[in-house]
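Bit of a strange request maybe. I'm writing a small parser for structure token strings and I need a real example to test against, not something I typed by hand. Could someone generate the tokens for this chain?
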Amino acid sequence: MYFDDYVLGGTSKTRSRTITEADIVNFAGVSGDFVELHVSEEYAKKGPFGRRIAHGFLTLSIASGLMVQADPHQEVIIAFYGIDKLRFLQPVFIGDTITVTKKVVELQKKAADRGVVAFETTIFNQREEPVVVFFDRLMVKCRGE
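Reply from user aminoacidic:
Good idea to test on real output. This should exercise your parser:
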């Protein structure tokens, strides 16, 4: 979507994706984050959640992919402009299915050919419980009429 297409209060929702064992193992390998709460079942059984949880940044990364897939017109995006007030509210477990919703909360024209769109973004699990919340911004092209 071009900057001109966004409307304050407008919402969108991505498709869903289930978090797998392979996701956790691969993310640990790529990131180097082998914290036992993520990779050791026996350790995690004694922890606060009773089982292993997905890395917070894994959940965020998968959500980012879902957001990219939701917009087939990536050529209008100039840059990811930032993220604020990121909070991990609840654990995400192997087998949980996440979906992302976005609400436009601010539109800021930066130049004749571009603007920044701010979103209130929430990642939900399959029970519709929010697991991650944050505000993010995209710089996008204007239509150039």
